[in-house]
């Protein structure tokens, strides 16, 4: 397994040309939808979340039992705070991570953004649904924080499995296993954060001033 595994970031040279092209096509669609009628007051929030996403990826934690490093992904947080704007912050963060930290790949920025942004957007859509179903703020955060990371890991698993230039089955399996602790940590972290924000600033979570659950 010669390809380095740095968290959710697929490196240059790992994927077939068609998959890289599809990744950039998907990125273009996500960015058009995310940027549609973006309001001026939303830009600072997008910038802050992009910065948080960038910084989180700079802290790598090597795992002892398998040859991989992990870091926080924050796609659940990006989704519940930014909603459909999340791809803007994620694309900015991933691009800066590559050009400033050489983290990931230039030709895989598109596919890497898609695998992180799609679960983030889904988390943003599911947040009000879980609220209407009566799930507590902590439960909502745990489900969406952990679920978004798990979904990103699964997407990367299938991208490596089906779109790899070589047989990356073992690498894909390592990726899934490596992010089990990240799923747990991000779930608990977002659970605490959502419970706090529901009390002090619920409008950040799109709850529009409704009474916190």
What report would you give on this structure?
By secondary structure, the chain is mainly alpha-helical. It has a single domain (17-205), classed as Orthogonal Bundle (Arp2/3 complex 21 kDa subunit ARPC3), CATH 1.10.1760. The chain has 8 helices and 2 strands. It has helices spanning 17-35, 43-57, 75-82, 86-101, 109-132, 137-163, 169-178, 180-200; strands spanning 61-62, 69-70. Strands 1-2 form a two-stranded antiparallel ribbon. α6 packs antiparallel against α8 (180-200). The longest helix has 27 residues, at 137-163. The protein is globular. The chain starts with 16 loop residues before the first helix and ends in a 13-residue tail after the last helix. Residues 1-6 and 207-213 have low confidence and may be disordered.
